[in-house]
Amino acid sequence: MARRFLDFISSLKLTIVCLSAAMVLVFVGTLAQVSFGIHEVQERYFQSLIVWWPAGSQGLALPVFPGGHLIGGVLLVNLVAAHLRRFRWSWSKLGIHLTHAGLIIMLAGGLFTDLFSVESFMRLAPGETKNYSEDFRAIELALIDGSDKDFDHVTAIPEGRLKRGGTIAPGSLPFQITVRSFYQNAQLQPLEQAGANAAPAATRGAGAHIALSSMPHATAENSRDSAGAVIEISSGGAPSPASDTWLVSAQLEPQTFSFAGKPYRLVMRQARYYKPFSLTLQKFTHERYAGTQIAKNFASRAVLNDPERNERRDVLISMNHPLRYRGETFFQSGFEENEAATILQVVYNPSFIAPYLACVIVSAGLLFQLTYHFAGFLRRRKSRSAK
Fold first, then answer.
1. Which of 9, 108, 194, 340 sits a CA distance of 20 to 30 A from 179?
2. Can you give the pTM of this predicted structure?
3. What are the residue ranges spanned by the domains of the chain?
């Protein structure tokens, strides 16, 4: 039984099946971008073990095809098993061993990048200091305790937890939060513009004057959903139908309330990734080619301050010259209209070296194999000439 399994997992047939499945997945995923948008397609097709298809309005989903992670994982195991089983060490096969090792590193590096890399952005206006970056798409509900005059105590609830609904009881807060409703893409309208039958979304805060409705999922490349939720804040116990509720959305300014004599702020915002250092923008420059509006170069000059490492220095982040610090890379990504602020793309990728290493190893393997066989050819030719 074990031998049959080893034969299967190391077979060339499995390799062909995986490559064919990958081609089908890429083709279908490309077509699906029209309906779902590129980001959701990435998550549903390429960053999953199984592609699930919604089968009805009741939330039922059916597995229809292996996802990108499953196909890539099986292909990686297949390549390792085939190499260990079929190839034996010898100098004549060193090039083949190196080539396979490079391919294994490339596949494993791609999988690790997909699983553990994080992309975010940092918006900085001149003179502004930040020690966090923000996610491009993910949101969070932040509850901020402002009773301490020196710093804020922030409790963040991720979007995924809000989607599940129910009651949330963070240990850092003296109250619990009940999610009454969640909208993946919400439309907010003043009550006077929403029609005669419109009802306020909540009983407290801005939601008491706003009507809330659900919108179709945003699929355009440069658009994104604007999530919204109606929540209840209570001291505990079963929620009452008459309890006060709040509307939270990234479209609203922070709202304030008091609980047990403490002031709190309530805000839906892009998910934040805090860092042990800060950047202060000194100057942003945007150079254009003479007589045109075509960008020649744009750069941000900033001060990096890291109290933990007792480091403070000036840094320049420009096109093709990123800042690499503490495992993160800061790219000059863009800027806001009228150059009021710079936008830095922040990438954390623990396996960023894998593609470079894989290419070097594969190149070395191919070069060695070519040189070895060419040298053998020259020796055989010389021996024939000597006869």
1. 194
2. 0.80
3. 2-117+353-386, 120-130+275-348, 134-272
